[in-house]
Amino acid sequence: MLEELKAKVCKANLLLKEYNLVLHTWGNVSERDKETGYIVIKPSGVAYENMKPSDMVVVDIDGNIIEGNLKPSSDTKTHLEIYKKFNNINGVAHTHSLYATSWAQSGADVIPLGTTHADYFYGSIKCTRALTKEEVNGDYEKNTGLVITEYIDDPKAVPGILVFNHGPFTWGSDSIDAAKNASYLEYVCNLAYNTININSKVERISQSILDKHYFRKHGPNAYYGQKD
Question: Which of 49, 113, 114, 160 qualifies as a FRET site for 138, CA 20 to 30 Å off?
Answer without folding.
Answer: 160
